[in-house]
Amino acid sequence: MMLRPAVKLTHEGARNVLDAAVAAAAAMGVPQCVAVVDEGCNLLAFLRMDGARVLSVESAIRKAMTAATTGQPSGLLSAEKAPALAAATDGRMTKLKGGLPLLVDGQVVGGIGVGSGSGDQDLEVAEAAVAAFHALLREEPS
Fold first, then answer.
1. pLDDT score at 84
2. Contact residues for 73 (Cβ-Cβ < 8 A; gap 6+)
3. What is the per-residue pLDDT for 73?
4. Considering the domain boundaries, does residue 135 fall inside one?
5. What are phi and psi of 94, to 5 degrees?
6. Among the four 15, 30, 62, 67, which has the fewest Cβ within 10 Å?
């Protein structure tokens, strides 16, 4: 067979992930930059909350891209390989915490990246958004 079926993240799905992340960040009192990309690392949704660091715009996007590309949290890249991967990808891959893949039945459909707090805060917001994503998936009719 020359084709394979694919599940795709919609803009509505990306907005739901973004909204969940923003709600989690607001509850923590930590303004964040939040990026959601599809499986091909195309930016689907982005928001810089009031008070979030301007330089975290790029890191949030790169965290989302790293998670979508690798299918793993962005903080898991090995310390030895991280500089080479960053150089080889023109800085698009990062070892910074705060990026998580969006998975459906083991298939990567996208990634979320959060930046502007500490690495642990960024990861906590991303985890809340991924949990909301999975909860919404369970609610969808088959």
1. 85
2. 67, 97, 99, 100, 101, 123
3. 97
4. yes
5. -140, 155
6. 15
Number of domains in the chain: 1
**Per the domain annotation, does 3 fall within a domain?**
no
| 64 pLDDT tier (thresholds 50, 70, 90) | very high
Section 62-74 average pLDDT: 96
Counted residue by residue, the chain has a size of 142
For residue 26, being part of any structural domain is answered with yes
The mean pLDDT of the chain is 94
Q: How confident is the model at residue 46 (pLDDT cuts 50, 70, 90)?
A: very high
Smallest CA-to-CA distance from 49 within 122, 110, 120, 111 is with: 122
Rounded distance, CA 93 to CA 64, Å? 9
- The DSSP secondary structure of 35-91, one letter per residue, reads EEEETT--EEEEEE-TT--TTHHHHHHHHHHHHHHHSS-GGGS-TTTHHHHHHHTTT
Give the CATH number, domain containing residue 88.
Answer: 3.30.450.150
* For helices 119-139 and 11-28, angle between their N-to-C axes, nearest 10 degrees: 130
What is the pTM for the complete model shown?
0.94
User: What is the per-residue pLDDT for 142?
Assistant: 65
Q: Is 25 left (phi over 0), alpha (psi -120 to 50) or beta?
A: alpha
